[in-house]
């Protein structure tokens, strides 16, 4: 995911001849020429930043631009940390699966679902197993039934001669951790 960074014009990069200026503490300083605004900002050891270039006249604010950028980057990093990207995990079964192996795979699928990821359950058929697709469907039905507490069927996917699959989604949405500070 690419972050779109807004480009701010600061100090002499501002092109408008007249600006509506907001002071460092949020007070309105009125409409000033660019030179007057830059002089007042430099007296307070602040930068003049154009915050609303589309306004008439454009709005500029006196601020410490380095500190502003730093706080903006911290805010974006916290937002990225809070988001959860749903992934699609795949769990494969075969027709001749042992009961313990089946339970291990269902437990893995359950872990994926509790973490908030989707799970694609796939039964593959090898050789003459293609003639016994009913056994594979039974395995999928059992897995879906075993995962009913944590997930629901999103859709029954492609039914090909070599495999059958079902996609299961988590029942509850995962809550993002709340950032402190």
Note down, in words, how this protein is organized:
It is a single chain. With 181 residues, the chain is an alpha+beta fold. The protein folds into two domains: 9-82, Ubiquitin-like (UB roll); 88-170, Translation initiation factor 3 (IF-3), C-terminal domain (Translation Initiation Factor IF3), CATH 3.30.110. The chain is built from four helices and nine strands; from the N terminus they run βββαββαβαβαββ. It has a five-stranded mixed sheet with strand order 1-4-5-2-3. α3 links the parallel β6 (88-94) and β7 (118-124). Residues 174-179 have low confidence and may be disordered.
Q: Summarize this, please?
A:
By secondary structure, the protein is α+β, with helices and mostly antiparallel strands.
Which key phrases capture this entry?
Translation Initiation Factor IF3, 4 helices, rod-shaped, Ubiquitin-like (UB roll), 30% strand, five-stranded mixed β-sheet, four-stranded mixed β-sheet, 9 strands, alpha+beta, 2 domains, 181 residues
In the CATH scheme, what's the topology name of the largest domain? Translation Initiation Factor IF3
Distance between the ends = 24 Å
Helical proportion, percent range: 25-40%
Q: What form results from the Cα inertia axes? A: rod-shaped
Radius of gyration: 29 Å
Structural class: alpha+beta
Largest sheet: 5 strands, mixed
Query: Unreliable stretches, pLDDT < 50, 5 or more residues?
Result: 174-179
Q: Can you identify the CATH superfamily of the largest domain? A: Translation initiation factor 3 (IF-3), C-terminal domain
- Element order, helices and strands? EEEHEEHEHEHEE
Mean of pLDDT:
84
Q: In CATH terms, what is the architecture of the largest domain?
A: 2-Layer Sandwich
Beta-strand portion reads: 25-35%
Q: How many strand elements?
A: 9
Separate helix tally = 4
Q: In CATH's first tier, which class of the largest domain applies?
A: Alpha Beta
How many domains in all?
A: 2
- Give the strand order of the largest sheet, numbering strands 1, 2, ... along the chain: 1-4-5-2-3
